[in-house]
Amino acid sequence: MNWLIWCVALGILGLAAAVGVAIAAGLVENWDAATSDSFELSAPGQSLITANASDPPAEDGKVLELRLAAGSAPGPGNGPEAQTLDRFGYGTYSTRLKTADCSGQPKAGVVTGYFVYFNDGQDPNGDGVPDNVEIDFEWLCAEPQVVYLTMWTDYRDSDEAQKRVARAINLQSGTILFTCYFEAFGACQSLSGAENQPATITAIPGYDSSQEYIVYGLDWLSNGVTWWMMDPATKQKVILWDYHNQERIPPAPAYYFTNLWHTANWTPDGMPEATQSPTVPVSTWVDWTRFEPSGLELFLPLIQR
Length: 305
Ligand SMILES: [Ca+2]
Ligand SMILES: [Ca+2]
Fold this sequence. Notes:
By secondary structure, the chain is mostly beta strands. The protein has a single domain, classed as Sandwich (Jelly Rolls). The chain has one helix at 3-18, and strands at residues 22-23, 27-29, 39-42, 48-54, 62-68, 81-84, 91-98, 110-118, 131-140, 146-156, 161-170, 175-182, 188-190, 214-221, 224-230, 237-243, 255-262, 282-293, 302-303. It has a nine-stranded antiparallel sheet, with no helix packed on it. The protein starts with a helix and ends with a strand. It binds calcium ion (2 copies). One calcium ion (CA) binds at residues 123, 125, 127, 129-131, 154.
């Protein structure tokens, strides 16, 4: 490395120190203790969230259990949730989890969410809609063979103004259900080219997110976001969506979440009645949760409170 590069690197470190942020060292949470140094755990009402719960299929036998109470009201604010104390930026996020099992109640409306999120109502990108930093994995318990992948740059709750891209995949059949850009709920603008890769997905026979622990992850960089998982049978990485279009990738650090909640209005295609609150408690199980900052992008493995 020549002296000029050293000067630039030292300048960046100095700037980071000057504005009161630190270079993130990464995060590994195995959920093998009653409390976490990295996450705040919350569970309103009769719901529960319990770290260091025992479950033999976990790699270390210990998990985080998010238990959504029977009769829970709709909305993510009414379910158990793990949220980091710090914000994280570009890098690789991964988890090993098992989603809620509603097989005893086919019309239950329950979402398991694994995602990053930050929205303070400000509009740094200046498009008139508050910036919404959010990249999601989500599963509906009424269709545990389908994974929903979503990325937002802007959202306003009052009128649902939004800019987001989303893809849904039935992994059991290897069917991409949609790959779209949205400026309103339900208004799909189909994506193509670099925003629609891979264009086909190979089936994972028997895939059911609620029946076994599976590793899921996403790589968040300024010019691309890749959602992936590990095939539980072959142990090979499966690329679910390798998305490229820089203007639709959120550029600011975000909090890191896993949650479980009742939805009364988001239903699988062809299952409009899957809106019931659970009649018995249902749980999502998390073996571990990790973040590894990108080695390529100096500026955004920043953490901020
Ligand atoms: Ca905006
Ligand atoms: Ca564990």
